[in-house]
Specification:
alpha+beta, Beta-Lactamase, Helix Hairpins, 5-stranded antiparallel beta sheet, 5-stranded mixed beta sheet, 13 helices
Length: 474
């Protein structure tokens, strides 16, 4: 009341109204501000509530994560413990294995030492054997470098006065420049081809060695080659004596056999009076046996001439087809007895060949007789004479259907005194020299001879002869 009175004294009514209005406006403004602030505070509270809710949720999630992590941590800890335990076990097992391996390694090393000692002993034995071999030995590595020469090889090749570094660790090409090796390398070639028992005269004293080559194999892989030098001087001398003996014996037998043949032929022909049937039969059998004996003596004489290198003598230019026809005429009677047809075909205008007529006729005769002896009855024997202009040679082939040649015996067919088992059963008479002589006749003329055969079926023998110009031959 006092304040009102005081205000009335200080302010007029209008001023008081204005003040009241102003106060009212300020109060309204403050109210609005308070309301606005209240709203803002409410929003802030709401946001805080949301934050609190989010924090509570995050807290709950964190708690869940904490639990999950704890579970995982426990599981991982358990796994790690299991892994550590496993590693401990593996380490222990590995340690045991290493200890076992170490013991085995020690045992292996001990065995290796023993094997090395044995190997060294064997190596020393091998070196001693090589050194003291009765055969000469040249050892080459896979690059054809000479690595080893034993004492006999040094002796055979007369290397005593040549320093080893001149020829050892040298290639075959380099060895051809050394006179002592030249003859050997000429036979084997610089590539050391396969050679079997090639003869070589090594000095003026008629000393001979036989050269053969052999591969050095380890697990079927070639790591080098041997050249083996075998002394055949004594064998050559014995062979010469044997050849001389055979020649003398055969010549000595020819005279009485010829006399027997003349006597038997005279008796069979009745020149000394008529014979009864029984006497004639026995004389004919004796004559057949005598003829076989003469054939054997002739074969032995041919053999001695072959071995003496004096077999092929006079050569003339002849038509081979004429010689074949001539031999066929002589064999027709035998073919007729077995009801076998001899069929001969040839190329036209075949050239003449430079040959020893007697020897080529013997070659053809031996082949035709063999074809007749070992073929089946009532069959054909086919003969063909053809010219191969690319090789400049003539080829003769004769095919029969008969007992054939066993596969296992094919390598021995052209050797001396050899006859196959089935041939012995079919034709008991024979010297086993025919094909050996055939081979020498063909090769002495610069040709070759071979065959194809299937046991119990067909067999074909071939030989070739070179075509030479008359001027060239002269």
């Amino acid at each position: 009341m006092k304040e009102a009175k005081l205000n009335k004294k200080v302010f007029s009514n209008k001023e008081m109204e204005d003040i009241k209005m102003k106060h009212k406006e300020e109060i309204e403004l403050l109210s609005k501000l308070l309301i606005s602030r209240d709203l803002e505070l409410n929003k802030i509270n709401e946001n805080l509530d949301d934050k609190i809710i989010q924090l509570e949720k995050s807290h709950a999630i964190m708690e869940d994560v904490k639990d999950v992590l704890a579970i995982r941590l426990n599981a991982r800890t358990k796994q790690l413990k299991e892994v550590i335990d496993g590693l401990d076990w593996q380490v222990k097992e590995r340690t045991k294995k290493l200890e076992t391996s170490q013991r085995k390694l020690m045992d292996t090393l001990e065995d290796y030492k023993i094997e090395k000692t044995i190997s060294q002993t064997e190596k020393n034995k091998t070196i001693a054997i090589i050194k003291n071999m009765s055969d000469g030995l040249l050892i080459f590595n896979q690059n054809n470098i000479l690595t080893t020469v034993n004492e006999m090889a040094i002796k055979f090749l007369n290397l005593e006065n040549i320093k080893k570094n001149i020829y050892k660790q040298k290639s075959t090409s380099d060895l051809t420049k050394i006179e002592n090796f030249k003859s050997v390398i000429n036979i084997t070639g610089t590539e050391i081809k396969n050679v079997f028992r090639k003869e070589l005269k090594i000095n003026d004293n008629d000393d001979y060695i036989e050269i053969s080559t052999m591969p050095i194999l380890i697990d079927k892989k070639q790591i080098g080659k041997f050249i083996i030098l075998h002394d055949i001087t004594r064998e050559k001398k014995v062979q010469a004596l044997k050849t001389e003996f055979v020649s003398i014996a055969a010549h000595q037998l020819r005279t009485p056999l010829s006399a027997i043949k003349w006597t038997l032929t005279t008796l069979i022909d009745g020149d000394f009076g008529e014979l009864n049937a029984k006497q004639l039969t026995y004389l004919k059998k004796a004559n057949i046996s005598n003829e076989r004996m003469i054939e054997l003596v002739n074969d032995l004489l041919n053999l001695s001439r072959i071995e003496a290198g004096k077999y092929i003598q006079i050569k003339d230019f002849l038509k081979i087809e004429d010689l074949i026809n001539e031999v066929m005429e002589d064999e027709k009677i035998k073919a007729k007895k077995k009801n076998i047809i001899l069929e001969f075909k040839k190329d036209n205008n075949l050239p003449e060949l430079s040959v020893d007529k007697e020897k080529i006729m013997l070659l053809i005769q031996n082949l035709i007789e063999n074809a007749l002896n070992y073929c089946y009855e009532n069959t054909k024997i086919y003969m063909n004479l053809t010219e191969d202009r690319t090789k400049n040679e003539i080829q003769f082939a004769i095919t029969n259907t008969g007992i054939g040649i066993p596969k296992k015996l094919k390598q021995r067919i052209f050797t001396k005194f050899f006859r196959a088992d089935n041939a012995l059963k079919t034709e008991t008479v024979g010297s086993g020299l025919g094909l050996y002589i055939n081979k020498n006749i063909a090769e002495s003329h610069g040709g070759k001879i071979w065959f194809d055969s299937e046991e119990g079926k067909e067999t074909t023998f071939y030989f070739t002869l070179p075509i030479k110009d008359k001027i060239e031959e002269f």
